[in-house]
Design goal:
Strand content: 25-35%
Number of helices: 4
Helix content: 25-40%
CATH class: Alpha Beta
Number of domains: 1
Largest sheet: 4 strands, mixed
């Protein structure tokens, strides 16, 4: 097993390198353009019909718990957090060719695990 450190928006891996790729609680800390680049790179390095797992905050639910969490989180999160929770990832995933097939709420609905399939595969 190896551990590589690099730029997720410009990965050094070949197209269609991985069967599965994942990112956990990182996308909300990125500017929209970089977040979109990371999602595109995940699709590029993941084989066609490969699995892509994304774990991050969910778009706010209309409930008191999420409202309270959102206010508290804004104190410690980056400046990109509010825009992320308002816009979500729908458009970036669609553009990258990732189709979400399962979403599981976590942390009492504050977050979610999204399992997607890479519909495009390498060289996007």
């Amino acid at each position: 097993m190896t551990f590589d450190v690099g730029d997720a928006a410009h990965m050094s891996y070949e197209d269609d390198y991985f069967d599965v790729s994942s990112v956990s609680f990182a996308l909300h800390d990125l500017p929209r353009s970089v977040r979109e680049d990371v999602v595109k790179e995940m699709a590029r390095v993941t084989k066609a019909n490969g699995i892509i797992i994304i774990v991050d905050y969910a778009v706010p639910a209309k409930n008191l718990l999420y409202s309270l969490f959102h206010r508290i989180a804004r104190l410690g999160e980056t400046k990109y957090f509010p825009e992320f929770v308002q816009s979500g990832l729908t458009e970036a995933l669609k553009t990258a060719g990732i189709r979400i097939i399962v979403e599981v709420p976590i942390l009492a609905g504050i977050g979610r695990i999204s399992k997607g399939v890479n519909m495009k595969g390498g060289a996007n």
